[in-house]
Design a protein that fits this description.
mainly alpha; Rhopdopsin 7-helix transmembrane proteins; two-stranded antiparallel sheet; two-stranded antiparallel ribbon; 12 helices; 4 strands; 67% helix
């Protein structure tokens, strides 16, 4: 039931004649160079390091290098866009200090961290042992789930609608913080709970958007395109996990989909940053608005 966060699958491959195959450096796969002499019949015996062996490919060396280079270029572009989005949304928080902007910036940084771990870029920045990579992956998934809850709560201003929303969001976030501690002990369980939380947040957000949109709440209506992308991304992730999407493009495409979601959310938030009315929303309570109205009428 719990997700497979990746691990070393093949410890070694030994041929029936000659020496064991040399392992090639690769951040996301077990790669071995196979050399066959013409006219020989060789049997290979693989020593598995994990009971699960998802896929086995036999590549021509040049074709494999071309494939790796193309994916490396795509991943570099995605990480660059994610970094720029996170930085830009952080700057928006400095310009407009309402709670919506730091929540969006935190979500963008969580997505950047998730993408860096998923694409193997974090290994190039800091040295991560093979056993700790699962912990990092689970930690980023928990952070993504937690910041997603914070963004939904802050953007829709749920505390203005009912006080129970605040208590519910607080309990939800505290629960995810506890799960972050579980990631050190059992990363698979922590990642599984984080994914369930992310899906539950998306479904809860869908219900809130429909409920508040019917009441004419403009923020809920503006969030519809982004939430449609979130639901589509969840469907794609579910298909990839269940094996319905079983190809090499699925993982990079899901990473790019996350960036597209943050891009749409960023555009939505920027409308509040540069609009006159959106900047003042949330600065004053109802009592303060009433006091300002009385003062402006000239009665005081």
């Amino acid at each position: 039931f719990w997700p497979d966060l990746g691990a070393t699958r093949i410890a070694a491959i030994t041929p029936s004649e000659g020496f064991a195959l040399d392992r090639q450096t690769s951040p996301d796969a077990d790669v071995f160079r196979v050399t066959l002499n013409p006219g020989t019949v060789v049997t290979f015996v693989a020593e598995l390091a994990s009971p699960k062996l998802p896929q086995v490919y036999l590549w021509d060396p040049e074709s494999y290098k071309d494939s790796v280079n193309s994916y490396t270029l795509f991943r570099g572009i995605v990480i660059g866009i994610a970094g720029l989005l996170a930085l830009f949304l952080t700057i928006l928080f400095v310009v407009k200090g309402t709670s919506m902007f730091p929540a969006t910036a935190a979500l963008a940084w969580a997505v950047l961290a998730y993408i860096c771990v998923d694409f193997g870029f974090l290994n190039k920045i800091i040295e991560i042992s093979p056993g700790n990579e699962q912990m990092w992956r689970a930690g980023t998934e928990v952070a993504l789930a937690a910041t997603f809850v914070v963004f939904l709560f802050a953007y829709l201003n749920l505390n203005r609608w009912h006080g129970h929303f605040s208590y519910g969001a607080l309990v939800w976030i505290l629960g995810l913080l506890l799960i972050a501690g579980v990631a050190i002990i059992d990363p698979a369980v922590a990642a599984g709970i984080a994914r369930i939380s992310f899906a539950a947040t998306a479904l809860t957000g869908l219900g809130l958007i429909i409920f508040l949109g019917i009441r004419g709440y403009d923020r809920a209506i503006m969030l519809v395109p982004s939430w449609v992308m979130v639901l589509l991304w969840l469907c794609g992730s579910w298909m990839a996990i269940t094996g319905m999407l079983d190809n090499d493009i699925a993982q990079p495409a899901l990473g790019g989909g996350l960036i597209l979601i943050i891009l749409l959310i960023g555009f939505t938030v920027m409308q509040h940053a540069f609009a006159g009315g959106g900047a003042h929303q949330g600065l004053f309570s109802d009592l303060e608005r009433q006091a300002l109205a009385v003062a402006g009428s000239g009665d005081i």
